Amino acid sequence: MRIDVLTLFPDIFDNLNSFSIIKKAIDSKKVKIKSHNLREFAENSRKVDDYPYGGFPGMVIKIEPIDNCIEYLRKKNNYDEIIYLTPDGDLLNQKTSNYLSTLKNIIIICGHYKGIDNRVREHLVTKEISIGDFVVSGGELPAAVLCDSIVRLLPGIIGDESSALSDTFQDNVLSPPIYTRPEVYKGMQVPKVLLSGNEKEIQKWNDEKSIERTKLLRPNLFDND
Length: 225
Fold this sequence. Notes:
Blueprint: E1 2-7, H1 10-16, H2 20-27, E2 32-37, E3 49-50, E4 60-61, H3 63-74, E5 81-91, H4 94-100, E6 105-109, H5 118-123, E7 127-130, H6 140-151, H7 162-165, E8 184-185, E9 188-189, H8 199-217
Parallel strand pairs: 1-2, 1-6, 5-6, 5-7
Antiparallel strand pairs: 3-4, 8-9
């Protein structure tokens, strides 16, 4: 898989790629993640932003460097999706991450300042994603979140691939409570069913607890069935 990230601050994103699952995936050549500095694709003295029409405050990333960068990348690769990270996009969920993990090549555009010229969104972007109903300074951290949610699903990245199948949200339910050693700590005990070795009863307990926690904490997930 190849992921190209368009950003004004490639150092931020590159540093995030040096840790944990993403680093493992890069080192094992399961994924190639390349950041591209939009300033290098600006034609006017590396100027990538300008004031918005209409007299509004703030600065807006121009269409020119984004279009130039995408055109440069398209000469080398075919892309399945061109994604813009924005608070008003579709909320990222496990279904979306599952889908994106099956693709071969994607582009991620990181906004900054007040955002990007809307013509990019109208004519170049194929998918808009939000990581939540809040605003951060730029798209680099959301891009890292998106990449991690995708890359961890690639074959061979997680040591026990079946672990990903029991993640929260995979079946529109929250994962059940989990425990590890010691069996008893300061009087607090692990549920006995998990120590029984009875796989059928353990699975039944897991299913019941998943539904119980989802009803209590995220009942809206049942609306997605």
